[in-house]
Specification:
- The complex is a heterodimer of chains A (about 400) and B (about 575).
- Chain A is built from 15 helices and 16 strands.
- Chain A is an alpha+beta fold and about 400 residues long.
- Chain A folds into 2 domains: about 180 residues, L-fuculose-1-phosphate Aldolase; about 200 residues, Class II aldolase/adducin N-terminal domain (L-fuculose-1-phosphate Aldolase, 3-Layer(aba) Sandwich), CATH 3.40.225.
- In chain A, the strands form 2 sheets. In chain A, strands 10-9-8-11-15-14-13-12-16 form a 9-stranded mixed β-sheet, with helices on both faces. A 7-stranded mixed β-sheet of chain A has the order 2-1-3-7-6-5-4, sandwiched between helices.
- In chain A, helix 3 crosses helix 6 and helix 6 crosses helix 10.
- The longest helix of chain A is centred in the middle third of the chain and has 26 residues.
- Chain A starts with a helix and ends with a strand.
- Chain B has about 575 residues and is an alpha+beta fold.
- In chain B, helix 13 packs parallel to helix 15 and helix 20 packs across helix 24.
- Chain B is globular and about 60 Å long.
- Classes of the chains: A alpha+beta (about 400), B alpha+beta (about 575).
- At the A-B interface, helix 4, helix 6 and helix 9 of A face helix 7, helix 8, helix 10, helix 20 and helix 21 of B.
Chain lengths: ~400, ~575
């Protein structure tokens, strides 16, 4: 199990989701083992020993956004409630512990929260997440909390502006030091239609790696497919985009066999997109600024309360359409196909970006463009001030989507 | 009290008396219902022979039954298995559970032995035994039809009446309380059927919280490719797994001599849909509807059944497999054990049965005549009688289902640690080793599996006590179900506390088994899996399971469970320390 702990500690560093000197893992088989930052390792071990789980990570995030959310929370609040679809679906909410909260020992308090949720924010310490089945699961849950608090904080900041001491400076450092330019430059893509299975698998594996390495997505947030004749090659559910070898299902378009039961939950969406667009490849990810921007809406007196599922409108981020729809059978497969063929890209409310192309180069560049546009637009609105940010909204051009 | 009724209906078949008692609230909170409550209620009886008149047969619902919690209209039947001699439970869905709760009880406790065949009729507060001489010998369909209008039915067929060791109790809507032969326990009591009618509603303590949790569950169902994916079980039923098991080269074939059956596509999900116009069907109130039926209402076989009547016996005719499934349902036979016993017998005699012969054998098993007399004992006893004990592909005498353990090492371990014998559902590692839920694990590695299996056993014991369907957990988790439970009962539960309850249940079951002589010696796979390879090919190697590594992981499991190296309890007072 030591190799697993080392692997996922390295992944957190590569993802830039945690500070390299602030990562600890604990895992228990018949024995409890801990590795990493000694102080956090102690905490991780103490916490895991109170839980019926296999693994746990305690790490200091590379950004202070989670702590800022805790500090902004009103007295009496005890959890962060993210609005992005991924978190809403799989984590629901994220409990937090304040720095000065009295009570039992820290490990015991964290365990109490992790007995009910997959991850917890501990102010001044970091994010602690558990995995009931694998070490990888603890890593995924940590990444999910990191993603959720990132998106949530950016949303809150746009709405409320800077409020905390040191917040403006920390955010400036984030813009200056943490963010990197998003680009497809220097990447090698196979051009044109792919037909040989070996060639398709190799290209999908490479492009999956690119999306993570270039910072478009965190590794578990997305899926990828390629159509060749009457077969759709698609990444499997719970597959890591940067480790797709052996994790791609060939699914016949006529459903003549059901091996694709392990395919991504978005198989149906991919199938419908192919039918509607004639594309050869599809890329789907959850780039953070696109997720944040997709949820900005100033529709007045709107009767829709479940925007994730029920919004019938097509809004636009630049020239990219935004539609509602939840994961899998939650409506996304119905709303994305009608809008994606023309622009070759679409954003799903609170969820992420779909791009298509004749080859992966085209799809990848489209996703970079969408995220770069959203990033630039986000900062433009933020720099204009919170009042304006709330008023200047994504344009509604036509409705309904279907 | 919300969620629970706090009442148990006790029926003594020997005297014909029926009465209600209170169940201590402490026990309900500590064991929930279903499997947990049933196991607890057997504390004073677990050493009895399964056919002893005093051995109880407990039908227990859970605190979520009667609510709109997804997949929770279920009950568990608990007793001691005549097939495995272990404590035994099995859950089933359908209106029966809902109506039992509606009759105002959390459990029905049947003991004694009637001097003549009877039907127990529960209608609201009343309970009476009516003569059933005219129903004795009737099939399930005939029995259910005869009792129409009286309520929901749980009945036995000729197999249960005649003491077949793998006889089922069948629900009127086609669900089965399967595997361990509880139908034979019911038959020995001469209880042909139980009919229940009841409409008392279940009060939910916090409706808003409940609705929110329910929405969370449904969102996760929709996000799950296994549940609502276009190739998932809602569309194709569990036969959606046929193609996958073929591709993974772990479909038990010819009594587990091979792991690939060339003709498996004949009975895969798409074939069932095409050839039998399979339509959605399923348990009462369940949004998944994973069972499949013909337009005429004939229930179509599940994955285990198509694979075991198919590959395990070398039969490629789908119509023959459907016929075998229907026969088992009518006669009240467990399909997995029936098919696996016939397969072991086929290997012993040097020839697997053809399709026509299977139908005859099933009828003879149910009536315990001809070759059926031997086969009615299950594969372990039958193979031993034939002088070929090694041909029984079972653990603790329970025939293994259609996941070859050489293709999933967690499954190999879980077959052995299961308290009811070779069952895939106790820890259900297929979920992560094959279906990638909640996250994938390496199916050819034992690393971490002891802990994973222990946690999954505990979690599933809690699920079986809620009672919810395990298929829910291809999407949802204990987080959402703990919310549903807390909202329903106003008692705060978390995934962690549910797992602790599950651990108590698992250890109690194991303690009972140890009290009846079970030790590590029974936690063993058939020798074939350590000695013979599966069908390697297409870049997938299926070697025999390394015995030393298996034993090492099993020893870890015992340590994690706090057991002795022999798999037993160091603390003889364990039970007394439990609620």
């Amino acid at each position: 199990m030591h190799d697993q702990l080392a692997k996922y500690a390295a992944r957190l560093i590569a993802d830039r989701a945690a500070r390299p000197d602030g990562i600890a893992f604990a895992a228990q088989d018949d024995l409890l083992i801990t590795e990493g930052n000694p102080e956090l390792a102690r905490l991780a071990g103490d916490t895991l020993s109170c839980l019926s789980a296999l693994s746990l990570v305690a790490a200091r995030p590379s950004l202070p956004f989670a702590d800022f959310l805790v500090q902004r929370a009103e007295t009496g609040e005890s959890c962060i409630v993210p609005r992005d679809t991924e978190t809403r679906t799989f984590l629901h909410d994220i409990p937090f512990l304040r720095r000065d909260e009295p009570g039992m020992d820290t490990g015991g308090r964290i365990a109490r929260h992790l007995g009910n949720r997959k991850g917890v924010v501990v102010e001044g310490v970091g994010i602690v997440a558990s995995g009931s089945v694998t070490v990888e699961q603890a890593y995924i849950n940590y990444s999910s909390v990191f993603h959720a608090t990132f998106v949530k904080y950016l949303e809150v900041l746009l709405r409320e502006g800077f409020r905390l001491p040191g917040e403006r400076e920390a955010f400036a450092a984030f813009r200056r030091d943490w963010l990197r330019p998003l680009t497809a430059e220097g990447l090698v893509f196979r051009q044109g239609a792919l037909s040989e299975p070996g060639e398709i698998l190799a290209e999908m594996e490479a492009v999956g790696r690119y999306t993570v390495e270039r910072g478009l997505v965190d590794s578990f947030f997305g899926n990828i497919s390629c159509r060749s004749g009457e077969v759709i090659y698609i990444s499997q559910t719970a597959a890591s985009l940067n480790e797709l070898a052996g994790c791609i299902d060939p699914v016949p378009t006529d459903n003549s066999n059901t091996c694709g039961i392990t395919a991504s939950s978005e198989l149906l969406a991919h199938r419908r997109i192919y039918e509607a667009s004639g594309a050869r490849v599809i890329l789907h990810g959850h780039p953070k600024f696109s997720v944040v921007m997709s949820m900005l809406c100033a529709e007045a007196n709107c009767p829709v309360s479940d925007c994730w599922r029920e919004c019938p409108k097509v809004r636009f981020l630049g020239d990219t359409p935004v539609v509602a729809g939840e994961i899998g059978a939650g409506g996304l497969a119905k709303r994305v196909p009608p809008v994606i063929a023309g622009p070759g890209r679409a954003v799903v409310y609170g969820h992420g970006v779909f791009t298509i192309g004749a080859d992966f180069g085209e799809a990848f560049r489209a996703m970079v463009e969408v995220e770069n546009w959203c990033r630039a637009e986000y900062f433009r609105r933020l720099d204009d001030g919170p009042g304006l940010a709330a008023k200047v909204v994504t344009e509604i051009r036509r409705a309904p989507a279907d | 009290m919300n969620g629970w009724t706090g009442k148990i209906l006790k029926v003594d078949l020997t005297s014909g008396r029926a009465w209600r008692e209170d169940i201590p609230t402490e026990l309900l909170h500590a064991y929930l219902g279903g499997r947990g409550l049933g196991v607890r209620l057997l504390r004073d009886h677990y050493r009895l022979d399964p056919f002893d008149p005093a051995m109880p047969l407990v039908f227990a619902v859970g605190p979520l039954c009667g609510t709109t919690a997804p997949t929770a209209a279920r009950l568990t039947v608990v007793s001691r298995s005549p097939l495995t001699s272990t404590i035994y439970d099995c859950s089933a869905g359908g209106r029966f559970a809902w109506r039992l709760k509606g009759a105002g009880v959390d459990a029905l406790h049947v003991s004694g032995e009637s001097p003549r065949p009877v039907v127990l009729v529960v209608n609201g507060e009343s309970a009476e035994l009516i003569p059933a001489d005219s129903l004795w010998g009737k099939t399930i369909h005939e029995t259910v039809a005869a009792l129409a209008g009286k309520g929901s039915v749980a009945a036995i067929g000729p197999a249960g009446e005649n003491g077949v060791l793998f006889a089922n109790i069948m629900m009127g809507e086609g669900n089965s309380v399967g595997r361990g032969g509880l139908g034979a326990v019911m038959g020995k009591k001469r209880l042909k059927a139980v009919v229940v009618e009841g409409e008392r509603p279940v009060e939910i303590a916090d409706r808003q919280r409940f609705d929110h949790a329910r929405q969370d569950v449904m969102r996760l169902f929709r996000a799950s490719p296994v549940i609502f994916g276009e190739l998932g079980i809602a569309e194709y039923g569990t036969p959606a797994l046929v193609d996958l098991m073929r591709q993974r080269r772990m479909a038990p074939t010819e009594n587990f001599r091979k792991t690939v059956f060339a003709d498996s596509g004949n009975y895969a999900g798409p074939a069932l849909r095409r050839d039998f116009q399979a339509r959605k069907d399923g348990c009462y109130g369940c949004p998944i509807q994973c069972k499949k039926s013909t337009p005429q209402g004939e229930h179509l076989p599940e994955y285990e059944t198509v694979s075991h009547f198919g590959a395990l016996n070398g039969i490629s005719s789908l119509s023959a497999i459907v016929r075998a499934n229907t026969l088992c349902n009518e006669l009240g036979l467990d399909t997995i054990s029936a098919a696996a016993t016939i397969s072991a017998w086929g290997e012993a005699r040097g020839r697997f049965p053809d399709a026509a012969e299977v139908a005859t054998l099933l009828t003879d098993i149910a009536w315990r005549r001809g070759d059926g007399l031997l086969l009615s004992l299950g594969s372990r006893r039958a193979a031993a009688e034939l002088g070929r004990p090694e041909l029984s592909m079972s653990v603790k005498a329970l025939e293994l289902p259609a996941y070859d353990p050489r293709g999933a090492y967690g499954m190999a371990l879980a077959y052995c640690t299961s308290n009811r014998g070779g069952c895939h559902l106790r820890a259900y590692p297929i979920s992560h080793e094959i279906l990638r839920k909640p996250v994938p694990t390496d199916r050819f590695s034992f690393s971490g599996k002891a802990r994973i299996i222990k946690i999954a056993e505990d979690s599933n014991a809690a699920v079986d006590s809620l009672v919810a369907c395990k298929f829910s957990f291809f999407g949802a988790t204990l987080e959402e179900y703990a919310e549903l439970l807390s909202a329903t009962t106003r008692v705060e539960y978390t995934p962690q506390t549910l797992k602790e309850i599950g651990e108590r249940i698992c250890l109690t079951e194991r303690f009972y088994n140890c009290g009846n002589g079970f030790t590590a010696a029974e936690d063993r796979l058939p020798e074939r899996f350590h000695a013979e390879p599966g069908s390697s090919g297409e870049g997938i190697d299926i070697p025999p399971i390394d015995r030393a590594r298996f034993n090492e992981e099993l020893a870890k499991y015992y340590r994690i469970r706090g057991l002795t190296p022999e798999g037993t309890f160091a603390d003889a007072d364990f039970l007394e320390k439990q609620p």
